[in-house]
Amino acid sequence: MLLWTRRSRAVAIAVFAVLFAVVVLAPLAMIVLASVAGSWNGVLPSEVTGSHLAGAVHGDAVASALVSAQTAVIAALVAVVLGTWLALSAARAPLVVRRVLDGVAHLPLAVPSVVVGLGLLVAFSRPPLLLNGTRWIVLVAHLVILLPFTFSVVSAAQRRVDPVLAAVAASLSASPMRVLWRVQVPVLLPAMSASASLGLALSMGEVGATVMVYPPDWRTLPVSVFALTDRGQVFAASASTVLLLGITLAGLVAVGAVRLRAAER
Amino acid sequence: MRRLVWLVPPVAVLAVFFGYPLVLVLWQSFVSDSGVVGLQVWQDVLGSAEFQRAVVRTALLALAATAGCLVLGVFLALVIAFAPFPGVRAVSRLVDVVLAFPSFLIALAFTFLYGSAGVVNAALGDGSVDFLYSPWGVLLAEITFYTPFVMRPALAAFSQIPGAQLDVAASLGASPWRVLRRVLLPDAAPALASGACLTLLLCMNEFGIVLFVGAKDVITLPMLVYTKAIVTFDYPAACVVAVVNVVFSGALYALHRCLFAKGAGRAAVDAA
Predict the structure, then answer these.
(1) What is the distance of C-alpha A71 from the center of its chain?
(2) Which whole number is the average pLDDT over A43-68?
(3) Under a CB-based contact definition with an 8 Å cutoff, are residues A220 and A206 in contact?
(4) Is the dihedral of CA A118, A119, A122, A125 positive or negative?
(5) The domain spanning residue A140 has which CATH number?
(6) Interface of B with A in 46-65 (CB under 8 A)
(7) Does the structure show a pLDDT above 90 at A150?
(8) Which of A8, B128, B231, B239 could link B124 by a cystine bridge, Cβ 3.0 to 4.6 Å?
(9) Does some domain include residue A17?
């Protein structure tokens, strides 16, 4: 609409194509190529091998992948439940309380993940609660980082819900628990599943806080990828990254399928 | 009162696992390794050249990356919105997918693209590009990764602008540049400013890219927190840097909230 001549449109699209290829396509292609590269001395890998990918689904790498998947699922689930809880209970609070809560709950967004990790290290390496050195500290770190996102998505959806809906259910003498379970939560389900996807993806890729707090027996996949690149094993690192992306996408597809089924009912 | 009781469990989680650690970080920053309470650690850290370089570097990198993201993101969004081509939907889906990826992926990909043994050097001859382990490498990686964060809101804003408005402007003889400057950008400005503010905040706090590029002379504030705490076990100094970092990003975040809270309210009214 903005560009009327054929030529200007073609130029714009050509520039777009080049930029898009450099910015989005090339990095993705590189990771995939490197994960199957045997040796890479020229422009393209001179030899293709599946051994890195095979290595990524073996031993240590698989242990990391399992750790990451478990961490992501647990942290995302807890974050969705707590975020929804916070959004629902904040909606019924007086306006002043609601404003303050909205600000406070979003605050972890502004704090660098490294600082979240440092705080947990400082706070939970001493009594009354000793978490340092356990896997719980990793889970807590991920939860703190995900919570503002799940809260934000669910409370935005909550604001668009007609409050009359719950009031009508209550006036028909449904108990508060029943109103919550049969009216309020079902209306928010799409937002909850969207925030679950977001949480999964964020948790799978989290590095900053994890690298600060992880114990040796609970090393997530991104931390393993960093350890590999640090040792110069870039092909193995790429293979692990491809595995990471695969698991993330599979998780997103699974959450999407659950959402579809929920919508059909 | 009973309604407020329901707030207790989630707020308690935030307080125990987020608020309490932050307070302890602040407290720890005033306690030196030998247990003396005072401003000694603050003086040492704030006076060190390492810290001052990190502050300047962090600010410059974040500002430059945001500027780059704005230019690139607006251009890409403009083409998608106003010069659509076959496959444009697939392209914008791919952008969404990239948003879900971890940032360190870009840094890793850059070593294969622009590293000393990378594709570009292999194609153009050894040593033709050599910026990866300098601030430029981090900057380009950040622009690459954060452009979608500007592109999304820009696309959303452009799609709200009625095509008739552009056609009228054009039929009155305005050139595409003029339409862009006088109609499109002013209309999209709030969304772009909000996106830019968020990008600035994320770039300032970015850690994965800096860690993975691993350039020796690129020390940003989050990176300094990490090295102080994990590499040299200097917790008090790490806490000072962390507090400074939180103050900066907290201020930016507060600014973002106050500037755009009104806009969000209006958008909500419009939607209703």
Answers:
(1) 11
(2) 77
(3) yes
(4) negative
(5) 1.10.3720.10
(6) none
(7) yes
(8) B128
(9) no
pTM assigned to the model = 0.89
- Domain for residue A138, yes or no? yes
CA B195 to chain CA centroid, Å, is 9
Residues 6+ apart with CB under 8 A from B215: B132, B133, B134, B135, B137, B138
Topology, domain B51-219: MetI-like fold (1.10.3720)
If contacts are CB pairs under 8 Å, which of residues 107-126 in chain B contact chain A?
108-113, 117, 119, 122-123
Confidence label for B271 from pLDDT (cuts 50, 70 and 90): very low
Where residue B237 falls (left for φ over 0; alpha for ψ -120 to 50; beta otherwise) is: alpha
Using 50, 70 and 90 to split pLDDT, how confident is the model at A51?
Answer: confident
**Contacts of B255 by beta carbon, 8 Å cutoff, 6+ apart:** B197
Using only the alpha carbons of chain B, give its radius of gyration.
23
Contact across the interface for A121 and B91, Cβ inside 8 Å: no
* ipTM confidence score: 0.88
Q: What is the pLDDT of residues B72-115, one digit of tens each?
A: 999 999 888 887 788 888 888 888 777 778 888 888 888 888 88
Which DSSP string do the residues of A27-82 spell out, in sequence order?
A: HHHHHHHHHTEEE--SSS-SEE-SHHHHHHTSHHHHHHHHHHHHHHHHHHHHHHHH
Stated length of chain A: 265
